[in-house]
Amino acid sequence: MKDLRRYLALKYIQYLVLSSSNAVSTLLGLLGSAYTMILLQSAKVSSKSTAVFISSLAQADILVFLSLVSDAVLGSFGGGVSPAASALARILLTANAHASCVLLSCVAFEAYLITFLPSESRPLRTVRNARLVSRLIWTLVAAECALFLVDDHLRASGASAPSQGPLGLLFQLSSAAAALLRSLSYILGILLRIINVYIYYKIFFSMSPR
Length: 210
Fold this sequence. Notes:
Pfam families: 7tm_1. By secondary structure, this protein is mainly alpha-helical. Helix content is 80%, strand content 0%. Helix 1 (2-17) runs antiparallel to helix 2, helix 2 (23-39) packs across helix 3 (49-74) and helix 3 runs antiparallel to helix 4 (83-116). The longest helix has 43 residues, at 165-207. The protein is globular. It starts with a helix and ends with a helix.
């Protein structure tokens, strides 16, 4: 449907084109996600694997709404945005951005399969597989954000964190893993942008009249 294609275009611009989020793109993304979730409940939208990915993409914006709520609620105590509220909002936005980027890449990859390998890829492009992939993405993103939360807590605790013994080693390992993940997430974000541009470049020129 045209509305779903417009929504995907909005999300690609928001997460894979813009260098950083802003109030306008965030508001448009939230409104688009709310409309899309309602639209996907319609009988006119067929139950396909692409619809599963789009549904997960729209649901990811719930995290953006929760981050705004956490800023408003937790930040109201003490008359300003508390460090706890700021950290929680940042983690929720990180989860939203990472899940959305990967889900958008899943939609692009599926479009590539539909265009160039329609019959060969049909056994893979099932609703069941799409749901499994979506759950795997959310599980990995949740694990990533849990590690970031632990690292933020250790940084906030500072000197009170043990530096020796098994706990000290565990804290050092979690801090190193969080730093590595932050570096990899940046590299992965650049890589996903390149892959998505290449996929749609191939699709566009394959459908253009020769």
